[in-house]
């Protein structure tokens, strides 16, 4: 690990803060979604919306794990890992999307809206996480010198 000894406490605190933030945002968006979506359509639309939301959240969770895995590597390895991970996640999402449309026959509008809302919410949180994690890494590197 590049950060070395004595960095685990700030890293753990930062991770706890990020997890709290993600949970609060997802719960808030989930509650707002329940209030808004329940009045918009039938049960197929609502179920499809929340299926899309779950996929968006799962995609974001994999993104957080990918970032955490590669953040302490060299810059080139980090960029390659994150962008390759984004590409793989996008292809997998496309495959799941096609499967759900053709085999399960989910409501396309509901599914796309749920995926759209939570995909971009989680992507914004991933960007915030990358910034915080890289700031922490920079601070710890400066403190070591």
Please, could you describe this protein's structure?
- The structure is a single chain.
- Helix 1 (8-37) runs antiparallel to helix 4, helix 2 (43-70) runs antiparallel to helix 3 (75-104) and helix 2 (43-70) runs parallel beside helix 4 (108-144).
- The chain is elongated and about 60 Å long.
- It has one domain (8-134).
- The longest helix is centred in the last third of the chain and has 37 residues, at 108-144.
- It is mainly alpha-helical and 145 residues long.
- It has helices at 8-37, 43-70, 75-104, 108-144.
Strand content: under 5%
Q: Note the main sheet.
A: none
What is the averaged pLDDT score?
88
Question: How many beta strands in the DSSP annotation?
Answer: 0
* Structural class designation: mainly alpha
Low-confidence stretches: 1-5
Distance between the termini: 16 Å
Tell the overall outline.
Answer: elongated
Helix content: over 70%
Total count of helical runs of at least 4 residues: 4
Order of helices and strands: HHHH
Whole-number total of structural domains: 1
Determine Rg (CA atoms, Å): 18 Å
SSE order and pairing:
Elements (H helix, E strand, L loop, with lengths): L7 H30 L5 H28 L4 H30 L3 H37 L1
Helix pairs in contact: 1-2, 1-4, 2-3, 2-4
């Amino acid at each position: 690990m590049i950060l070395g000894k004595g960095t685990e406490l700030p890293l753990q605190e930062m991770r706890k803060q990020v997890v709290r933030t993600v949970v609060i945002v997802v719960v808030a968006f989930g509650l707002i979604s329940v209030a808004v979506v329940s009045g918009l359509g039938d049960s197929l639309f609502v179920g499809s919306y929340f299926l899309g939301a779950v996929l968006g959240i799962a995609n974001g969770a994999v993104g957080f794990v990918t970032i955490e895995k590669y953040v302490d590597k060299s810059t080139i390895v980090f960029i390659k890992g994150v962008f390759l991970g984004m590409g793989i996640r996008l292809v997998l999402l496309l495959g799941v999307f096609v499967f759900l449309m053709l085999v399960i026959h989910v409501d396309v509008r509901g599914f796309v809206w749920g995926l759209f809302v939570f995909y971009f919410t989680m992507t914004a949180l991933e960007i915030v996480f990358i910034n915080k994690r890289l700031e922490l890494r920079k601070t710890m590197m400066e403190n070591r010198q």
